[in-house]
């Protein structure tokens, strides 16, 4: 049984790694968060109702039409937040999901995050908040800003239970500002929505001279069977709610983000150790990985 579990985990990681045309270096993939989530994600991919393609037709998601129809209303609330400087990076290092994005200029304001509570969103963006609450399949949403020169490095998102919807609000309308998903690019345009599978390798850059603001949503992945949909919903509610991060004081902070705050400060010492002696750092890291693997296999 133990070896069957190890074999299934290895199969899951290989499935994630070889999915799509673009891949991470295998050494990075082994320790990427998408590998730790691989057994869950292979389930999501096997029972997914949508095709295994990087880009998906937005027209197939009829429930999102109110967002498209009201994009100018949504844009007005986003631009007001921008004036108030509310679209920002995490101030307390308590955003486990997106912390690595902040160093390259990316900023966000949460409108909805699974079962977490964000009173600031209802107060500051009442119309957008109401629209999103009326669409149950939208599990998470935020305003996301990418300033001139901002970029997101190639990555996979860890959880395959959702698909990603981007609605252009105030964009450069310029091909130099784009997202690349599995080698296929899309340049954001005001009022235009796109849907893609964020478990393919994707990256983005704003090479223009103008800011980019979009509505960024996680839409629940449709599953082929009701029981599989229920499993997806349960995992989203438990795993993803735990990664909730606040906009303002009074917003909910999930357990994972609370723990991340601690690990972020512990990471400062890790980075000092790495800077002091890279060889010692790599040997220590390898030793810990081998030790953990041995515990898993032999206990």
Description:
This protein has eleven helices and ten strands. Strand 6 and strand 7 form a beta hairpin. The protein has a domain of 199 residues: Sandwich (Jelly Rolls), CATH 2.60.120. With 299 residues, the chain is α+β, with helices and mostly antiparallel strands. Helix content is 42%, strand content 20%. Belongs to the aspartyl/asparaginyl beta-hydroxylase family. It holds the Pfam family Asp_Arg_Hydrox.
Distance, first to last CA: 13 Å
Question: Which term fits the overall shape?
Answer: globular
Helix share, percent: 40-55%
Radius of gyration: 20 Å
* Major sheet details: 6 strands, antiparallel
How many helices? The count is 11
- Overall structural class, as computed from helix and strand content, comes to alpha+beta
* CATH fourth-tier homologous superfamily of the domain at 55-253: B-lactam Antibiotic, Isopenicillin N Synthase, Chain
Instruction: Indicate the CATH architecture of the domain at 55-253.
Output: Sandwich
Mean pLDDT: 89
The helix/strand series, from N terminus to C terminus, equals HHHHEHHEHHEEEEEEEEHHH
Low-confidence stretches: none
Give me the side-by-side strand order of the main sheet: 1-8-5-10-3-2
Q: What's the total number of strands?
A: 10
Kindly provide the name of the CATH class of the domain at 55-253.
Answer: Mainly Beta
Question: What amount of the residues lies in strands?
Answer: 15-25%
- CATH fold category name of the domain at 55-253: Jelly Rolls
Protein name: Beta-hydroxylase
InterPro entries: Asp/Arg/Pro-Hydrxlase, Asp/Asn_beta-hydroxylase, IPNS-like_sf, Lipid_A_LpxO-like
GO molecular function: dioxygenase activity
EC number: 1.14.11.-
């Amino acid at each position: 049984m133990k070896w069957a579990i190890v074999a299934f985990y290895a199969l899951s990681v290989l499935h994630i790694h070889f999915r799509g045309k673009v891949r991470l270096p295998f050494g990075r993939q082994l320790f990427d968060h998408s590998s730790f989530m691989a057994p869950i994600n292979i389930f999501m991919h096997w029972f997914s109702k949508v095709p295994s393609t990087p880009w998906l037709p937005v027209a197939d998601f009829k429930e999102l039409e109110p967002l498209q129809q009201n994009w100018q209303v949504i844009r007005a609330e986003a631009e007001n937040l921008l004036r108030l400087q509310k679209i920002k990076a995490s101030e307390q290092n308590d955003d486990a999901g997106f912390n690595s994005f902040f160093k390259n200029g990316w900023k966000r304001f949460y409108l909805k995050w699974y079962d977490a509570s964000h009173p600031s969103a209802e107060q500051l963006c009442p119309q957008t908040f109401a629209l999103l609450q009326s669409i149950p399949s939208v599990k998470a949403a935020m305003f996301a800003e990418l300033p001139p020169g901002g970029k997101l490095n190639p990555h996979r998102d860890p959880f395959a239970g959702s698909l990603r919807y981007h609605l252009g609000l105030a964009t450069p309308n310029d091909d130099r500002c784009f997202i690349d998903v599995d080698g296929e690019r899309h340049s954001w345009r005001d009022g235009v929505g796109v849907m893609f599978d964020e478990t393919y390798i994707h990256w983005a850059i704003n090479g223009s001279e103008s800011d980019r603001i979009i509505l960024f949503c996680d839409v629940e992945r449709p599953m082929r069977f009701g029981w599989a949909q229920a499993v997806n919903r349960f995992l989203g509610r438990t795993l993803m709610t735990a990664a909730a991060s606040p906009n303002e004081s009074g917003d909910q902070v999930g357990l994972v983000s609370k723990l991340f705050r601690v690990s972020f400060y512990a990471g400062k010492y890790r980075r000092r150790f790495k800077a002091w002696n890279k060889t010692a750092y790599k040997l220590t890291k390898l030793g810990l990985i081998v030790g953990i693997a041995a515990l898993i296999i032999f206990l």
